[in-house]
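hey can u check if this looks right to u? its 423 residues, i copy pasted from the old doc so theres a chance i mangled smth
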Amino acid sequence: MGDGKLTRRNFVKAATAAALSVPTILVNSQPKTFRVALIGCGGRGRGAVRDIHEAAKLLGVEIRMVAFGDWFRERALAAAKEYGVPPERCFGGPTAYKEVLDTDADIVMIAVAHAFHPIFVEAAVKAGKHIFIEKPIAIDPPGCRRALAAAEESERKGLTVVVGTQLRHHWDCILTHQAVAVEGALGRLYAGRVGHCGGHEGSVKPVNPQTADDLIRTWKDWNCLCGERALLGDLIHQIDFACWFVGRPPISAVAFGFRARRPAGDQYDFFSIDYDFGDGVHIHAMCRHIDGCWNWVGHDFVYEKGRTNGADFPNPQNSPIPPDVPRAKSPYVQEQVHLLYSLLKGKPLNQLRNLVLSTAAAVMGRLSAYTGKMVTWDEIMVDPNKNPALYNWRMRPTPEDFEQGTVEMPQEGVVPIPGLPAK
């Protein structure tokens, strides 16, 4: 699989091998300090830093922040001040991530605009860092395949990589998954639905960007940086949850969506996606960012012997959670508990391949909505000759354009029209 292609069969084999399975041994009685750096000093990144500090308390270890990086250095300086990190350890600009990775950090946390994730995680793996990275891992098929290659390299190096699909760290979800998806308590899975429908998110008036800095400040409005906020920013959690419970990636997606009310940027407001997982299993996924509408965030799976929302059947015969893992009050802290725990035990926990799967599934649905066509897994992740336009489809300006200073401004309000080729 070193060719950057992820077949459904290979994914199932790899995911089974990479499942959370850690030996139950006592944490070293001597205090241990982990050196941590943050790339991306916005709200989510700073929140992740608070979460790993809380996780460290539960495990009786210490966190020492050693570096901060952000496109805007003033944000790195502001974040660092809280933890006593000196200005010379704060980096800004498009290459700040490289300077952070050159430090002595053991763990690097990445929470930046989605488009940069493949490049940043690739560089972090090459630097030999353990990683926490937010979702999604990419915004287009080439980015997904690049991240897959990084996942393979991280596995070879024995690195721990925990990702921001925090529902996989929710205690009741873990136990329900074990009972239903692993032990088969409800029999065969027939079908399901997942959704993330809520109010408007993003700018409330046109942005009219003039510079790359303008785009970065409003990155959640722009497809070249965010890759559809409603889908890859929010619904990605529920798509990942569906893939987790089904146990394999979808074969194909048929979707629709469009832009109805957004005043800024170049994104759709809603998506509706039918995922075919093979063997007659279909999962419907929907998302919406429109005020004044019905809201729902959740999951509903129908099985041969009943149904579950993914968290209401927490009584497996055998718990997959080691007894000495502390239970945090939130899954955001729990994911950091699992990261630190894996390092303390010397047993890597690597979720990067799983994030590639769910991201690629989301991208598959996105491209189906854009084109009005059925889009298959093979077309975007496996066979470059099956549909070259989809296999090679990239958002522009690219991350490389941002780093090289060759950014051309996207057109506000201009979106793909279903029935026409994706651009």
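The domain at 171-311+357-404 is CATH 3.30.360.10 (Dihydrodipicolinate Reductase; domain 2).
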